[in-house]
Write a structure and sequence with these properties.
The chain is of the alpha/beta class. The chain has five helices and seven strands. The chain binds zinc ion.
Amino acid sequence: MQAHSIADGQTRVGGMMNGWDRKFIEMAVLVSSWSKDPSTKVGCVIADSDHAQLSEGFNGFPRGIADDARLHEREVKYRLIVHAEANAIAAAARNGHGLKGATAYVTFCPCPQCAALLIQAGIVRVVTIAGATPAHWMKECEIAQAMLKEAGVEYEEAQRTS
Ligand SMILES: [Zn+2]
């Protein structure tokens, strides 16, 4: 799938990340490793326009909900788990950081529900890793990308390594 830079309407295929994008994507990859989900680990880091990290999140159960056998029961897990982007937004709320004008770095393309939350939180740019999103998520990813585009949020997939 091709990458898009929606702000200028140009298609960017395999554009390299700048230094800050690389730093925050690498941080998001690190944060994803903290997930206890046995099947998929996603990380999200949100940074402001001055490149200050405002919050981070990974996919997991809410605070106080034990990481027990429910992590291995798909039906239950999907009802309880909080996605990385939603967790990062919630962490910002918990810690009193406004996200208006901020950039979200996510290890996979957001789902439509998270795209909606990112839009509503005031995120203006979403950066993911080219080629990282699993094939079975692409339909959801395309819906999310269309939402972000319609809402005027820049979406970029960039190469992780130069
Ligand atoms: Zn999501």
